[in-house]
Every structure is written in C-alpha cells, then in structure tokens.
Amino acid sequence: MVVENFHPSTNVQRTHLGSKIVWAVLIFTMVVASAVTAIQIYRAYFSAIAHLETRFTEIEASYLPSLAAGMWSVDRPRIDALLDGIAKIPDVGLLHLQGELQDQWRRKNAAHAKTLLERDFKIIYREGKEEFALGVLHVELMATNIEEQMWNTAKSIAVTTTVSLLMLAFFVLLIIRHWIGRHLEKTAEYLQQLDLTNLKKELKLQRRNKAAQDELDLVVFAINAMRLSIQDELEKRDALDKELELYREELEFLVAERTADLRSKSSLLEKKSDELLLQNRELDAYAHTVAHDLKQPVSNLMGASTLLNTDTLELSVERNRVLLNSIQQSAKKMHAIIDSLLLLSSVRKQDEIPMERVSLEDTVFEAKQRLDSFARERHARISIKGTWPIVRGNAQWIEEVWVNYLSNAIKYGGNSPQIELGVTNLANGYVKCWVQDAGPGLSAEQQSRLFEQFTRFDTNNTEGHGLGLSIVQRIVNKLGGEVGYEHGQVGGSLFWFTLRLK
Asked: What positions does the domain Histidine kinase occupy (predicted)?
C-alpha cells in the first residue's frame, strides 16, 4: 500500500476557513429555518382562519340588530354609519347589502384583492314574536392581513432559527463582536444617553488604527453631524421662543390696554347715552308741562287782563278784586312751576354735593314753618314723633324733601288731614325718615309711576304739577339714600327716604 503525502496544490483555489464555516452555517440555517418556518406557518394559518371566524361573530352580534332597526325605519344615515363601522373592522375587505326593495349599499377596502372567507347574513327585524326579512348582508374577509401575518411569522421563525443556529458558529460571532459589535454597542449606549441637555458630547470609537476608516466611521460621522445640526436648530428655536415670548407679552399688554380703553369708552358712551335719554325725557316732560300746566294760568292772566283793560265794560269793585285775585293766583302757580323746574335742573347738573352735618329736627321745623299757612287752610294736624339724630347731607335739599312729602300729605290726606312725621334707626348706619297720612292710599299701578316726573294722580287738584316726587328722588339719590312708598299700618300712605348718619 502506497501512501502519498498530501500537499496543498497550487492549482486549487484556496478559501478561508472562516468563509467555509460561515457558508456552512448559512446553508444549514436556511434549510432548518425553512422546514421550521413551513410547520409554523401551517399552524399559524389555521389559527388565523379561526381568528377570522370571530369577525363574523362580532358583526352578527354587534351590528346586525342595529342594521335591521335602521333598515326597518329606512334611516339611511344610520345604515351608512353602521356599514362604515363594519368596514373599519380589521380584515373586512368587501361589504354588499341588498335590501328587499332592491336598494343596495357597498363598501370595499382599498387593499382588498383576494377573498379568504365570505359569508351572507340575513337581515331580520323582530317586533314581538313577528320577524321581517329586510335583506342580505354579504361580507368578504380579505387575505391581505393573513398573508402579511404568514410572511411576518415566516420571517420571525426564520430569524429565530437562524440566530439559534448561528450560535454554533461562535468564532464568527466573536469576530463580529470584536470588529463590529463592541463599536455598535458603544454607539447605541451613546445614543441612549444622548438628549437635548448634552448635545455637546462627541461620539468617538476606540480604534488602534485611526487612519483607516470603514462604514462604522461613516456612521459615527453622520451621528455627530446630526448632533451638531440638532444643537444648532435648538439654539435657533430657543432664540425664536424668547422673541415670541417678548412679542406675546407685548401683545397681551397692548390687548389689555386697548380692552380697558374700549371698556372705559363704552361705559362712558353708555353713561352719556343714558344721560341723553334722561334729558330727552325731561325735555319732553318739560314741554308737556309748559303746554298743559302753564296754559291755564296764562289763559287766566290773559282773560283777566283783557277784562280789566276794556274801557266800555264797567266792572264793580268786587269783580275787579276777583279778577286781580285770579291774576295773583295764576302768577303764583306759574312761579311755583318755574321754581320746581329750576330746582330739578340744579339737582341734575350738580355732580359733587357739599356734605355736612345736618340736624333733621331743624329741617323738619323749617319745612313745617314754610307750609304752616297751607296746613291751616286744609285744617291739617301735623304731629312729630321720636328723637331726631344728626345726619350727613345738605340742609337745603333735605328741607325740600320734607316740604314735598308734607305738601303731598296735606293735599291728598283727605279732609282735615292727620299727618305724622318720624324717624327710624336702621342697622346699616342709615336712618329712615317718613311721613304718614290717613288718605285713601295708592294702587299698585300708581306706585309703579310714583317717582316719575310730571306724574299727577289727582288731575282735579290744580295745585300740583307733578315734579315734587321726582325732585325728592333725585335729591335723596345724590345724598346717597333711597326713597320709597308703603301702605300705612292704619291705612293711608307712608312716604320715606333714607340718609346716612353723621
């Protein structure tokens, strides 16, 4: 037996052992991975089919009753909404609804190309024990998702099997670990730690020969370039954010300033509008007064003066006295009306009122003295009750309030009026001043117009001209109080106003 020595032939192409191992591992991995993948795909296919069957169950349980109700009531928007909901269920590729009246609805998924499962559902509406067939819903489940799942499963199994088998070739992995893996780990660790607060840190690989560069160095260069780009963009964004914040604060300030200015002007315009409306009402009322209240005394003056100036008419002394007395009474009435209008105008125009300590007792006494002769003519009896405190206000205006209330009580308090004046302390630092008479009182409709200007409830009484209570309300409001009316406890009327204590 001859044994020949084996020597590598120079004519045979040489290959590296590492390459052989890699190719052997790759081929073996592909064969095993293919077999395992086929088995797993076969099992996954039937599992996916069983899972698809649940889509039909879901449609039948969740949508068919509502769809039957919508078709029964011919609610097309509801039918469309339900069909859209079914069409959004995963794996549903085609819907076709055929109604009993030949009306049809159709929905198709854009990705539907191949039908895997299909089923027809009868649309039945139940009312009590009766059933009504309304149509048929045809549903097709597409194979797109199943194929994607099979493909993903194949890839997953192949990768898993390949990795498991590649572990046998550990020396190849060690090489990969030494040349590539450790650098990738360092890169991954760097990227995990990288955030917006440490963009200045540079990524560097630990290599002996730094002059020789490969693809990993290109990745590192790209990462560092991206880091610098992000850092620059963040700096620009921060600058823009600060600038926008300044603009926002300035805009908010301008908006707030303009809003406050507009509110102020709007409030001023509303106030002026109210004042103009009130002035127009006063002017209208003034014209009404001049046309009516002044017409009679002017007519009396003209008539009496005409008679007195007639030369052909001889009048007795008594007749002359009556005419002169009529002229005098008409002049007094005109004078009283003009005084009331002037007082009302002065109260309206005066914004700031000089406030002082005022004795209520003195104002009541002065008002009673002014009306003494008028009270005697009407046989009025005026009684004053209680202790009168010191208040803050204007003595002349408070006296005018008493005069108006007292004159009204004397006029409208009935025959031989019985009038009471008093004051009541309130808990809020105010006092309630009141005048009560025993007259017939006022109705609810009269009370609602009580303090309006030029309002007169007794048109037969020619002594008043309807300005008194409106003047009272203006005066008391200027002094910081309120006015009001109540039914007296024993009948009649009780007029009151409030003032602040000293």
From this structure: 289-502
Does one domain contain both 30 and 135? yes
Do 94 and 83 touch, CB atoms closer than 8 A? no
- Secondary structure E strands in 426-472: 430-436
Residues 377 and 481 in one domain: yes
225: in domain: yes
Number of domains within the chain: 4
Which structural domain, as residue segments, surrounds residue 317? 293-349
Asked if residue 276 and residue 306 are part of one domain, the reply reads no
The count of other CB atoms within 10 Å of the CB of residue 84 is: 11
Buried b (16+ CB within 10 A) or exposed e, 175-187: eeeeeeeebeebb
> Crossing angle of helices 360-370/395-412, nearest 10°?
50
Do 129 and 27 lie in one domain? The reply is yes
Per-residue confidence (pLDDT) for residue 209, from 0 to 100:
67
Of 187, 191, 189, give the one whose Cα is nearest residue 230.
191
Question: Which residues, at least 6 apart from 479, have a Cβ–Cβ distance to it below 8 Å?
Answer: 353, 355, 392, 393, 394, 397, 398, 499, 500
User: Is the model's pTM score more than 0.90?
Assistant: no
The answer to the question of residue 396 being in a domain is yes
207 in any annotated domain: no
Backbone φ/ψ region at 442: left (φ over 0), alpha (ψ -120 to 50), beta: beta
- Looking at the DSSP bridge assignments, the partners of residue 31 are none
Task: Choose one of 228, 257, 282: the last residue of a domain.
Answer: 282
Measured CA distances, 179 to 17, 163, 191 (Å): 18, 19, 19
Residues 330-380 pLDDT 10s:
776 666 557 655 655 665 565 666 788 999 999 999 888 888 888 998 999
Residue spans of alpha helices (H) in 350-443:
360-370, 372-377, 395-412
User: Which residue matches tokens 């969740």?
Assistant: 62
pLDDT of the residue at 433: 94
Which residue has tokens 């052992």?
17
Amino acid identity at 219: V
Alpha-carbon span 377 to 381, nearest angstrom: 11
Q: List all residues 6 or more positions away from 355 whose beta carbon is below 8 Å from its beta carbon.
A: 392, 393, 394, 479
Is the Cα torsion angle 230, 236, 238, 244 positive or negative in sign? negative
The CATH number covering residue 62 comes to 3.30.450
Distance CA 451, CA 317 (A): 45
447: tokens are 């009370």
CA torsion angle for 462, 464, 467, 470 (degrees, to 10)?
-130
Q: Do 370 and 492 fall within a single domain?
A: yes
Dihedral sign from CA coordinates of 149, 155, 158, 164:
negative
